[in-house]
Design a protein that fits this description.
About 15% of the residues lie in helices and about 25% in strands. With about 425 residues, the protein is of the alpha+beta class.
Length: about 425
């Protein structure tokens, strides 16, 4: 992904709030003489690493929503979390032939990158040349240039061959996670995933002008979720024969809205004019491979809603010590979004709760992440953020005063209060 730029094009902001990535609170070496970056050997700075790992837990909020691949479903994407490697990555990819991730390749002359905790160089996790970021899951992720302001339409794309072609008219669940790297000086409003039945090795490194199967286009290049792991998903009815998957920005420079990060020092000269995104947890799952038991009807759908009353979202529950949702939560989240869509004048307050394991401060922070997870899913489905408020109570308001695992699971919850 060697992309040296000396351009000073007059880029303008497209509006939005000032962005401070939580990853930027950590000290890193400044750019050296001649703008040649010094190698960051911070992996051996154990104290800093502990702070960063703690920060990642506290700040990686809007990563909403469950992944079903690790619950026994048949994921058709090989090496979906970029955990496997033929050779541990040492630095950024300068030549396409160096990009060696089992199951993955570059379909153009662009050079995407691999990051893994095994690295002793500049391609590690959480520390690497593009920023500081824990993997969404596991120890690895990939990275690509999604946009640059040099006027050359430079792009990078990830490509994999599915384990089996898609079956015509069958329904598939598609999802992936993406995150703006903390050293990127620009953010953009879009990214996509495309499924095709054949592919070719393209010699240029420009934009692929395709209409992506799964297209994420935000209202703004900068959102409350920018800098955190974000979630792209859809249900897809196959045309039949699709066996290749591509990820990247398929829009032209003219169609891509961007935002220049304000008041952030340049940490990486190669990202001074670019939006660089990490990719993780790519899923293509046949629907018949995802058994879902019908949950109980949400309480707030059982009759007339009472204002200023707390409703337990009883089918939205969390794993122990985590803000990741259990699979049984998915159905109720969609019903919640549907209800809010049909009641556009109603606002909602989400309150997060934990079980009785852990300290008060930690549990309050964790309960905040849980409420934010639910809020993030609602906003990702089109509910305006201005309609949502978030509160956290930690373990101070248990539903069940017991210490059994069943009781603790019930206490790990989010409640909703509807207000006019």
């Amino acid at each position: 992904m060697l992309l040296m730029k000396n351009t000073n094009n007059g880029a303008t902001n497209n509006g939005g709030k000032i962005f401070f990535s939580p990853d930027n609170i950590f000290p890193f070496f400044a750019l050296g003489k001649g703008m040649i970056r010094l190698r960051r050997r911070v992996i051996n700075l154990y104290t800093t690493m502990k702070l960063a790992l703690r920060s990642e837990l506290l700040f990686t909020t809007f990563t909403a929503l469950l992944t079903v691949a690790h619950l026994g479903a048949q994921n058709l994407v090989p090496n979906s979390g970029f955990e496997d490697y033929d050779r541990c990555p040492g630095s950024y990819t300068q030549d396409k032939a160096e990009f060696k991730i089992p199951g993955w390749s570059s379909t153009t002359a662009g050079t995407p990158d691999h990051f893994h905790a095994c690295s002793r160089g500049e391609a590690g996790v959480p520390y690497n040349w593009a920023g500081v970021a824990e993997a969404y899951e596991g120890q690895g992720y990939a990275g690509l240039y999604a946009w640059s302001d040099n006027g050359k339409s430079y792009r990078e794309y990830l490509q994999c061959r599915l384990t089996t072609p898609l079956v015509k008219d069958s329904l598939y669940h598609i999802e992936f996670r993406y995150k703006l790297s903390s050293y990127s000086m620009y953010a953009i409003d879009r990214i996509g995933l495309h499924l095709v039945d054949s592919t070719a090795q393209i010699r240029h490194d420009k934009v692929l002008k395709l209409k992506p199967t799964l297209s994420v286009v935000q209202d703004s290049a900068l959102t409350l979720r920018t800098g955190y792991w974000e979630y792209a998903t859809m249900e897809y009815r196959a045309k039949g024969g699709e066996k290749y998957l591509l990820i990247g920005n398929f829009s032209s420079d003219e169609d891509t809205h961007f935002y220049k990060i304000q008041f952030q020092p340049i940490q990486e000269i190669m990202l001074a004019h670019s939006a660089y995104y990490y990719i993780d947890d790519v899923q293509v799952i046949p629907h018949n491979a995802v058994p879902v038991e019908p949950p109980n009807a949400p309480i707030f759908l059982a009759g007339e809603v009472e204002w200023d009353k707390d409703y337990v979202l009883r089918n939205i529950q969390f794993e122990f010590d985590s803000y990741k949702l259990l699979r049984s939560s998915f159905e109720e989240l969609d019903q919640l979004v549907g209800w809010l869509e049909t009641h556009p004048d109603t606002n909602v307050q989400f309150s997060g709760h934990t079980d009785d394991v852990g300290g008060d401060r930690y549990n309050k922070e964790l309960s905040l992440r849980r409420a934010q997870t639910v809020a993030a899913y609602c906003t990702s489905q089109g509910i305006a953020a201005s309609r949502i408020q978030i509160f956290s109570y930690g373990k101070s308001k248990p539903l069940v005063a017991a210490s059994t695992e069943d009781a603790r699971q019930l206490n790990r919850r989010v409640e909703a209060r509807f207000v006019e």
